[in-house]
C-alpha cells in the first residue's frame, strides 16, 4: 500500500471521528454512586419506593444506588439537600406532593424556591386517603355522615397528623365543598390520631390507607370513601368521594422523583425511562399496593402540569381557611 493510500485512510478515519456527534451527559451517567434522598423516616411508603428503586436501578446502572433518609421540617430538610446538589443526576429526590403544591402557600419562607429548585422526572404513585368514621359516628355512608354532622349542635371533629398536613387540607376541602361545621383536631403524627379515632375521642379522619385499613377490616372503623380519582385495591368496595356524591372532591397525595434544576435533558430522560421500566415489575406494584401506593408513572412535563393544578387548588383552600405553617 502506497504512503498516499495510507495517508488517505488516516484522513478518512480522522474525518469520521469528527463527524460523530459528541456524547451527551447521559452517556456518562451514572459515573459514580447515585443517592436517592427520602425526606421521611425509614419504613414509610416513600422509603419503600426508594429501596425498591435501589434494588432495580443498581444492576441496571452498574453503580450503587444508595437511599438516604433525611426527614424533618415538612419534608423540606431532605428536599433542600437535593435543591442544592450538583445538577448531574447523581442526587435525586423521592418527592412528596406537599413540597411543591402545599408548602409554598403554607410557609412564609422556605430554604429554596419550591417551583424552580427541581426538575420533575416522573410520578411514581398515588397515595389516596380513606375517609373513616369511628365508633362515635352512626353514619355508614358519606351522605349519612353529612346529615348526622348537620344535626350536631357542636359540629363534628376530624383528626389529622398536624396543622397544614395533607390530612388537614383533605378535611378543609371536605368542609369547603359541603359547608359542614367541622372542628379540626391536629395531632403530632398520624398514629396518635388513629388511636383516638378508634377510641371515639374524635369522629372522623382522612387517614393513610395503611394506617386505617387494618382497623376497617377488624370492624373498629368504618370506611366511607376514598379520596382519589379511583378506588383503591385495598378497599375495592369503598366508593370514591365523587362516587359518594361530593362533586369535585379529589385529594390524592402522590410521590414522584425529581432532580435539581438544570439537570440535563438527556439525564432526566434516561432516569425517567429506567425508573418507568423498573415500576412495570408486577412485584413492585404488589409491594407498593400493600403500602397504599397505586403505581402510576408519567413524563416530567405531565407531572409539572399536575403540580400547577394542585398548587392552585391548595392555595385557595389554605387562604380560605387561614392556615399558616409557621
Descriptive overview:
The protein has 326 residues and is of the alpha/beta class. Helix 3 (45-61) links the parallel strand 1 and strand 2. It is 43% helix and 18% strand. Residues 4-23 have low confidence and may be disordered. A six-stranded mixed beta sheet has the order 2-1-3-10-4-11, with helices on both faces. Strands 7-6-8-5-9 form a five-stranded mixed beta sheet, with helices on both faces. It is built from 13 helices and eleven strands. The protein starts with a helix and ends in a 5-residue tail after the last helix. The protein has helices at residues 3-19, 25-28, 45-61, 76-83, 98-101, 103-106, 142-150, 166-178, 190-199, 209-217, 265-279, 282-290, 300-321; strands spanning 34-38, 65-69, 91-96, 118-126, 129-133, 156-160, 182-186, 204-208, 222-226, 254-260, 294-295.
